[in-house]
Amino acid sequence: MGLSFGSVLRRGVLAGMLAGLAAAVVIWLVVEPVIRRALVIEDRRGMHGGQAAGLPMHGGEEPLVSRAAQVVGGAVTAVIVGVAVGVVFAVVFARLRDRLPGSGDFGRALVLAAIGFAAVSLLPALKIPANPPAVGDPSTVGRRTMLYAVTLLLGVAIAVVVPALDRRLAGRVMAPSTRWALDVVAVVLLVGLVMAFVPGTPDQVPADVPADLVWDFRLASLAQLAALWLTLGLTFGLLLERAGAARNDDVRADTGAPVSA
Amino acid sequence: MTTVASAPAAPSVSAVRVPVWAWALLAFAVFALYFVSQENGALLSAPAAQMLHELTHDARHALGVPCH
């Protein structure tokens, strides 16, 4: 008897919640300080009538939601995102468990988390990088959103196509190292095509936003996304591995090698 | 990490049977992700969408989705 879907899903939800909490902590410690620096710039524009000059501004004069509520709301949002990603992760993991590389459920969970991070977080972040407040031009948000979504879907497509190619190659007799090398070439080629042919953001960073603020924000954003995926993969894998050890079934049936990455 | 995975003839681990409702759940989770990260008035009334945007604002920036 294998693993039931319910036990996989429960662990996905729990791991997702923990991943969301980890992301919320990173937002609070790393992202919020950078957002505060950006809001100072927005405020300065407000004082100098920047809105008239066509610079990106936030809402009107009266804030709809206080800063404190935005900080709390951001943390709650991070947890909701974590749980939703955890659910998707659990379903995909259950479907692909027998095909994922890695020894043991822990290894497989880390592999899937790494692929998820690369496909739906890192690739869009490289093509349409995150921006702090005071940068985005509201009139281009539709186009930027479209490009972001296209890049994300292409990332998922690469994550589907390359393993399919790998199975193809496995059909012919070929040394594993050769196949591995061809897989890597395929990833580099496809990512290169996406980077070259999907148009970049139409926005220009306004002159009053320092370059190091933008860099710090993008780094902070990636740190937060990495924290989310890493926590998800680690906790999901640990929870599943422990479940397997407790039930003592497929751990033994596995390829044998203990988890040593 | 690759060599184990790819022996197609011998699946060393049992697959997990995924019930049909799981795909509906997955669709709902994806919808929830859209809702908190992108919803700006396509489904909600303008004031409600504005409120949602402001509440999720910091996380939207941090997640790197185009915000405004």
Structure description:
The complex is a heterodimer of chains A (261) and B (68). With 261 residues, chain A is mainly α. Chain A has two domains: 5-136 and 206-253, no CATH class; 138-202. Chain A contains seven helices and no strands. Chain A has helices at residues 5-47, 67-96, 104-127, 141-171, 176-197, 211-247, 250-253. Chain A is flat and about 70 Å long. Chain A starts with a helix and ends in an 8-residue tail after the last helix. The relative contact order of chain A is 0.18. Chain B has 68 residues and is mainly alpha-helical. Chain B starts with 19 loop residues before the first helix and ends in a 5-residue tail after the last helix. Chain B has a domain at 36-68. Chain B is built from two helices and no strands. Mean pLDDT of chain B is 82; it is low at 1-11. The chains are: A mainly alpha (261), B mainly alpha (68). The interface between A and B is large, with 83 and 46 residues.
